[in-house]
Specification:
Layout lengths: L18 H33 L30 H33 L5 H15 L3 H13 L9 E3 L3 E4 L2 E4 L1 E4 L3 H27 L7 H19 L5 E4 L2 E2 L4 E2 L2 E3 L1 H27 L3 H9 L4 H31 L11 H12 L2 H30 L5
């Protein structure tokens, strides 16, 4: 059999007519232009700073701070360094951010679901809440919560006593402080075992359901282990694993217990209430984006409203909810810098004092910006990992 003649190779496209060549060259040109402009601006800034004696230097972090911080999560004294002061401010920022995110999420979910309620009064009240907090500036809300609410509380001798006991006064919120007793370590170990066992059972239940071989009531059993095992451990272990130091009301002050200053309470409440309004709209939009056919199918197989929301609606709505929810978490963390307005010693407030004392405003600002950037990126990474997990896997 005679060999078939080979088809001639197509002529290669000349370089000056290759679209890929022009694409690479244009991108390199833009990158070079950005680097040149950035280098020019950076050189001008450094030159101007050097002439005025503001050349950035982080050596001041080892010097003695010499100023007090009203509220600290770790021991701090005026003899500590500026680095220690920044650490205190960072921990305060993280504390108010984590607590604010927790309460904002819980409140936002409740308000968002209430926006879809069939109850007219509940639906309108939740709408009023969203419109009020979403359309007024956060700074104004902080002023109202701090100066009109917390600073107008009664003096210590006339503190408002709530069950717990919890005391509300001009000095803040006082509540019992939990302390580990002799068997506290063993009880914490039981809690850890309960979390691991319940989480394992929950994962197994999810995988069996995905494979079409569900184990009836396995999730309920996991919840029972998670709640019941620590209760059994508390009853079995000798003595109380945890004791509570209760605040005692004196003539001029409250002593003992756990105290939250008015600044911390006002900032946390303001951030949570403000951010919850946006989260509520995200939850509402995510739920409404689920097809009505899914709801009809859930009702057709006999699921009640709670089961429909938990098993059908929320799993599909989460893929829509998580990305904008991440943005709201980042906004809450950055909005915590408004603590300066009410005197809470967060990272930005402490850094302002440090920049004034050291004469290194540029170095301090760059350092604080870097810290906020790291916090935001870490939060984004965690939320993106969770977002990948809840996304629907398409075949």
């Amino acid at each position: 059999m005679a060999d078939q003649p080979r088809a001639p190779r197509p002529a290669s496209v000349p370089l000056w007519r290759d679209v890929r060549f022009y694409s690479i060259v244009s991108q390199l040109a833009v990158l070079l232009l950005v680097l040149v402009i950035g280098g020019f601006l950076l050189n001008n800034v450094l030159t101007a700073m050097d002439r005025r004696g503001f050349f950035p230097d982080l050596g001041f972090l080892g010097l003695t701070a010499g100023f007090e911080i009203a509220e600290t999560a770790i021991p701090y004294a005026t003899t500590d360094t500026y680095a220690d002061a920044l650490l205190v401010g960072l921990l305060n920022t993280l504390l108010v951010s984590i607590v604010g995110i927790l309460f904002a999420t819980l409140l936002g979910v409740v308000i968002g679901i209430a926006r879809l309620s069939r109850n007219w009064l509940l639906r309108k009240l939740s709408l009023g809440y969203v419109e009020l907090f979403r359309n007024t500036p956060l700074l104004v809300q902080l002023f109202v919560i701090y100066f009109v609410v917390f600073l107008q509380m009664p003096p210590v001798r006339d503190s408002i006593a709530l069950p717990g006991p919890i005391y509300l006064s001009q000095r803040g919120v006082y509540m019992p402080r939990p302390e580990l007793a002799g068997s506290g370590g063993a009880w914490l170990g039981i809690i850890a075992i309960a979390i691991v066992v319940a989480l394992t059972m929950w994962i197994v239940a999810g995988r069996r359901e995905a494979a079409g071989r569900p184990i009836p009531r396995l999730r309920w059993l996991a919840a029972l282990v998670f709640i019941g095992l620590p209760i059994v451990g508390w009853l079995v272990l000798p003595g109380d694993p945890v004791t509570f130091e209760v605040s005692e009301l004196g003539r001029f002050n409250l002593s003992g217990g756990l105290r939250f200053t008015p600044e911390f309470a006002a900032l946390t409440a303001g951030l949570a209430l403000y951010t919850a309004a946006f989260i509520a709209e995200i939850i509402r939009g995510g739920i409404e984006a689920v097809s009505k056919g899914q709801l009809e199918a859930a009702r057709a197989i006999g699921l009640h409203e709670g089961q429909t929301l938990r098993l059908v609606v929320l799993p599909q709505a989460l893929r829509i909810i998580i990305p904008p929810l991440t943005s709201q978490y980042l906004n809450l963390i950055k909005n915590s810098s408004l603590a300066l307005a009410i005197g809470y010693a967060d990272l930005f407030n402490v850094s302002r004092t440090i920049s004034e004392q050291t004469g290194q405003p540029v170095a301090v600002i760059v350092l604080v910006m870097g810290i906020y950037l790291v916090i935001s990126l870490f939060t984004s990474v965690l939320m993106n990992l969770y977002n990948r997990r809840v996304q629907i896997k398409e075949r």
